[in-house]
Amino acid sequence: MARIAAAILALCLATAVHARPVSYEGGWTLIEETDRQSTALWVHYTPNPKLSLGWRSEWDRKQDFVLNGPQATFLVKRWFGENYQANVYGFAGGGLLSGLEDNPADGSGALFGGIFADWETRRLFASYRARGLEGGKVDSSFMQAARLGFAPYEGDTGDLHTWLMVEADHRPDNSDPVGVTPLLRFFKGPMLFEAGWSLTDDEPLVNFTYRF
Amino acid sequence: MFRTLIICFSLSLASSYAVQAETSHDHHGDHHHEGTEDAPGISAPLTKTEPIATALKAGGEPVVADLLGVVCDFCATALNKTFGKREEVAAAYVDLDTKTLSLVMKPDMTLSDSEIERLVEKAGYRLAALRRGEDALKGAANASDAS
Q1: What is the gyration radius of the CA atoms in chain B, in angstroms?
Q2: Are A209 and A15 within 8 A, CB to CB?
Q3: Which terminus of chain A, N or C, has fewer Cβ atoms within 10 Å?
Q4: Burial class (CB within 10 angstroms; exposed 0-12, middle 13-18, buried 19+) of B29
């Protein structure tokens, strides 16, 4: 019941993912991310095509804290081809922690940073991301995740694009450090929605992105 | 139970769209290409959507930009929004199949090649080639290299 409530809450909070964490110049993006570890809401603005600046609120359900603060994402390098695009991004942020369930982290600061890389054609997708977090009364944490995807058909502009994906994540601090999550990605116009289920923790993955 | 429902729903949705996409490539009903879309060595012509056809009838200049790195609808959204804000542009459409941006300018207005290239980069992508006028309408074997 609690898991269903968490999934519904995540859907209600809804908005987007690591598909293009930097938008077009002048664009706003709203993102919700829920995985086996946390639920996050993230809004960012792109002042130029190599940088986005935003605000991230993240509820770490395993470590019982909420982190609120700014996040900057930089496009380090983009490769263009007629049939593919590849990107490497760096990101960094920080903020104040609020402890939940007797977590004494209340009011202490935290910093995080990491990288995200992807390669995509209209049929194939691969990505990798890694993030480290250092917070006063919260133990430092590290995670990394890799994803592979396949589109069963090529949709044109405005069609519903469908992807079958699997994500493997590694969180050394967890009791189950390696997680596997199959998921479906749906893309249509300015919206992206992902739904999956962690086979490791029996938890939902729900991601949503809207690009204004 | 909840997990089973999600998996069943997602798989049925994915498979139905896959079948639909494979069997009906009148793709999308609201636009069509003239000429030689898939012919090797021939650049695609202007994609004809209703707004583009209307803008052409009004006497606007057609322009087709061949693009690099355009693989998803977010790319199309970025380019459509970037060019849609320009007062010179009467209609714009990104075609993922041909990897082109089709533009029709307002009568007596235009954007220079360098300005179009700058706007494509503002959207986060790269221009490969640019065609105007008849070359844009019919497709061309020898598009001008923008790089």
Answers
A1: 18
A2: yes
A3: N
A4: exposed
| Spans of all domains in chain A | 2-211
B97 SS3 class: coil
Query: ipTM, 2 decimals?
Result: 0.74
Question: What's the pLDDT band for B10 if we cut at 50, 70, 90?
Answer: very low
Q: With bands split at pLDDT 50, 70 and 90, how would you rate the model's confidence at A37?
A: confident
- Mean pLDDT along residues B57-73: 91
Q: Given pLDDT bands bounded at 50, 70 and 90, which one contains residue A138?
A: low
**Identity of the residue in A160, A161, A197 whose CB atom sits nearest the CB atom of B72:** A161
**Which domains occur in chain B, in start order?**
43-140 (3.30.70.100)
Query: b/e string for A87-110 if b means 16 or more Cβ within 10 A?
Result: bbbebebbbbbbbeeebebeeeeb
A2-211: CATH homologous superfamily?
A: monomeric porin ompg (2.40.160.40)
DSSP symbol at B40? T
